[in-house]
Specification:
The protein is of the alpha/beta class and 388 residues long. It has 2 domains: 135 residues, Aspartate Aminotransferase, domain 1, CATH 3.90.1150; 235 residues, Aspartate Aminotransferase, domain 2 (3-Layer(aba) Sandwich), CATH 3.40.640.10. It is 39% helix and 13% strand. It contains 12 helices and 12 strands. A 7-stranded mixed beta sheet has the order 2-8-7-6-5-3-4, sandwiched between helices. A 3-stranded antiparallel beta sheet has the order 9-10-12. A two-stranded parallel ribbon has the order 1-11. Helix 2 runs parallel beside helix 7. The longest helix has 24 residues. It starts with 5 loop residues before the first strand and ends with a helix. It binds pyridoxal-5'-phosphate. Pyridoxal-5'-phosphate (PLP) binds next to helix 3. The site of pyridoxal-5'-phosphate has 13 residues, from helix 3. It catalyses: (sulfur carrier)-H + L-cysteine = (sulfur carrier)-SH + L-alanine.
């Protein structure tokens, strides 16, 4: 273990917490029943465990258990929300608003809908990564059916003003969806206070298992309709068919429960680690902090570095730390991060960017080593560049 690089890619995914794993294990073997089997104890056990997770999730966002629809993750939840609303409300209107810095799991379903004739407005962000609320108001039309704005950005950690956006959408009678994959149980979320109608969640950014997530679907004030995107046995009140994966759902609930219990102390600890990392790195010249300095996830630090080649920078850092450049989630492509270019960065600067995702299992010692190695790497790359 000790020879492996320090894991600092916690926005891409996180290890499963041992406590989460322990909660999941009995549901693979002993309590393996199909939660839809209503005639025997095997089914009841599974159903009871799922009910508990549903309650934990609902409470975490101030919803009711009936408003939680389990999915395979946030990608599926985003698809279900966006395509589901488009299909259910197309007679009311065919205009959707989203934001340039959204995850591809939001942007791509919107692009797909465009091919079907929907009109998509993509709002820009300000230099700090936050949307301009008056631009949102201006973009709203009488045929707008959906506004989709994420809670916390997966690259730059920026938190969008959900309550303000929710108030604007509610006043105009427009459904508000938020991708909260990075935010759930890390920042306070309240679908009532924030007037959120649909919210996408996932477990694996929160020390839960991969392959499970949920969509919150508002049932009253107002009742939101979504057309199912997967048909079958009518599970999840017809919105998402398919046998529920009990172990994953149990793990999701446990992960949220733990994160909520530890939210205050963990936020404080991660903020301190991030600040100490930034304090070290910002001593160098030509380093930019990407995203709002305080309106961001506690564990996120994203920087751009002038005067170095992005690929060489990553290569130099990789032996010591597992990190991503800004273009993390689309790392299969060579395009610069759409999030960083949305902040106004040139392609070159966008490439020379590092996303530090500090998580539950990182220590102050590790962050110190990361700071020292990053400073040394940038220094030697700049020296080389000057000698050429
Ligand atoms: C990770 C992530 C997703 C995708 O979630 P999966 O559960 O992996 O499908 C969507 N949106 C954001 C903001 C993310 O960070």
């Amino acid at each position: 273990m000790s020879n492996r690089p320090i894991y600092l890619d916690n926005h891409a995914t996180t290890p499963v917490d041992e406590r989460v794993l322990a909660a999941m294990l009995p549901y693979f073997t002993e309590h393996f029943g199909n939660p839809s089997s209503i005639g025997h104890v095997y089914g009841w056990e599974a159903e009871a465990a799922i009910k508990k997770s549903r309650e934990i999730l609902a409470e975490a966002i101030n919803a009711t258990p009936e408003e939680i629809v389990f999915t395979s993750g946030a990608t599926e939840a985003n698809n279900l929300a966006i395509k589901g609303v488009a299909e259910a409300y197309f007679q009311k209107g065919q205009h959707i608003i989203t934001v340039a810095t959204e995850h591809n799991a939001v942007l791509d379903p919107c692009k797909y809908l465009q091919t079907l004739g929907f009109e998509i407005t993509i709002l820009p962000v300000q230099q700090d990564g936050i949307i301009n609320l008056s631009e949102l108001e201006k973009a709203l039309r009488s045929d707008t059916i959906l506004v989709s704005v994420m809670a916390a950005n997966n690259e730059i950690g920026v938190l969008q003003p959900l309550a303000e956006i929710g108030a604007i959408c509610r006043e105009r009678d427009v459904i508000f969806h938020s991708d909260a994959a990075q935010a759930i149980a890390k920042i306070p979320l309240d679908v009532q206070a924030m007037k959120i109608d649909l919210m996408s969640l996932t477990a694996h950014k929160l020390y839960g298992p991969k392959g499970v997530g949920a969509l919150y679907v508002r049932r009253r004030n107002p009742r939101v309709q979504i057309a199912p995107q997967q048909h079958g046995g009518g599970h999840e009140r017809g919105m998402r068919s398919g046998t529920l994966y009990t172990p994953q759902i149990v793990g999701f609930g446990k992960a949220v429960e733990i994160a909520l219990q530890e939210q205050a102390t963990e936020t404080q600890r991660l903020t301190q680690l991030r600040q100490s990392l930034w304090k070290e790195l910002s001593q160098l010249e030509g380093i930019h902090l990407n995203g709002h300095p305080t309106q961001r996830l506690a564990g996120n630090l994203n920087i751009s570095v002038e005067g170095v080649d992005g690929a060489a920078l990553l290569l130099g850092l990789q032996p010591v730390m597992a990190i991503s450049s800004g273009a993390a989630c689309s790392s299969a492509t060579t395009a610069p991060s759409h999030v960083l270019t949305a902040l106004g960065h040139s392609e070159k600067l966008a490439y020379a960017s590092i996303r530090f995702g500090i998580g539950r299992f990182n220590t102050a010692e590790e962050i110190d080593r990361v700071a020292q190695h990053t400073i040394a790497t940038i220094g030697s790359l700049r020296k080389q560049a000057m000698m050429v």
